[in-house]
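Q: Convert this sequence to structure tokens.
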Amino acid sequence: MGTDEALQLLRLRIIYVAGFALLFLAAPFIGEIPFAIWGIGFPIYFIRESFKARKLARSRQSTNVEQNNSKAK
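A:
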């Protein structure tokens, strides 16, 4: 995983925690439904982004292996 992808995933984690904390504090005033949606929806989005980043890293790795094999021949 490149540093750009790692920083993007770290940024997502920080946004998730900050949003979760704000909704937790605001739950008595706005209700618990937004809190529940954020608590379920954002991790699903994060998991999807992690799988996309992992898939991209694997494709880059396989491409590098193929290029190294062709150079060795």
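The chain has a mean pLDDT of 80.
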